[in-house]
Design goal:
single chain, eight-stranded parallel sheet, six-stranded antiparallel sheet, binds alpha-D-galactopyranose
Amino acid sequence: MKRTFALALLACTAGFAADLATTPPMGWNSWNRFHREIDDATVRAIADAIVSTGMKDAGYIYVNIDDTWEGTRDAQGNIRSNEKFPDMKALADYVHSKGLKIGIYSSPGPKTCAGFEGSYRHEEQDARTWAAWGFDYLKYDWCSASRVYQQADMQEMYKKMGDALKATGRPIVFSLCQYGLNYVWKWGPSVDGNLWRTTGDISDNWRSMSEIGFDKQTGLDKFAAPGHWNDPDMLEVGNGMMTSEEYRTHMSLWAMLAAPLLAGNDIRTMSETTKAILMNRDVIAIDQDALGEEGHRVSRAGQTEVWMRHLENGDLAVALFNRGPDAANVTADWSSLGLTGKHEVRDLWAHASSGARADSFSADVPAHGVVMLRIAK
Ligand code: GLA
């Protein structure tokens, strides 16, 4: 009897990880815009703004605190937040009261990347603390772990935290952050990772974003599936150092990649243009498509690229990208997309039908821009 109960409990807790992140996580993270300048009041105000701007209704649910919340440990070794975050449980309650979820950050090493307290030798204890505070998401960043472990220990150390999170009995999304080392996409699911960074940090500029999105994800699409996603890093949309055209390309490319959509801007003050990019429901629907197929490049011509992604209802998402400095005409041939006959085409940034087309679709695409399509089956 006892054994049956234990087995049932095990099956139930093991189920948590697989049921989490069945589509790529959506939300917000403090790092890209705020770095160290993040505190309780700002997180609350961002949660308010996620609701009032419509971001929540568009699907952005996780409010994730990145590095610099950590304080010292008490005499029993329990991690405490620092003076910027007076009461983590109260903050989590507040975020939950808005119908949102809340995320936290740590490292397997003694120190985080910003030099704050990490979870080294306190893994189970920290997992229990975060669960008791009510956290729903953990980003676990390698950082100083390189000083105390060999790179070959990495998988084991991530498994240790994956097991610790499961043992809390609370569903907690597990985000692996180790910059794509050791072919993490091959073992991320086995440590219960729901997403794993594939590269170093993104910066708010065209070169960083386009190299990460276009070049560094090649060949990784086969490793993405419901519950387990490649993470090309958080969004820079609205942070000011790219043009609107470039931010539309960023959002479209992340949607084609089935990437987590973690807004990284100041939601309280974002412009109408930024809102229109982050809350384009047609593009979000591609990112969140239940089939969970990550898109891939089907052709390249000069500095233009055509990408495709199959969708659950049999439609195709197709993106015509122009990485060059001048406008260019880009063509998607039906043959390269596996299509024959006539198909209805919808332009997801113009929010308009482009009519029924046979054989191919061509469009003028602005410099560093995109035309993103949904082609009916
Ligand atoms: C690393 C991560 C970033 C961020 C910082 C915080 O650089 O890759 O995403 O979490 O640490 O210190």
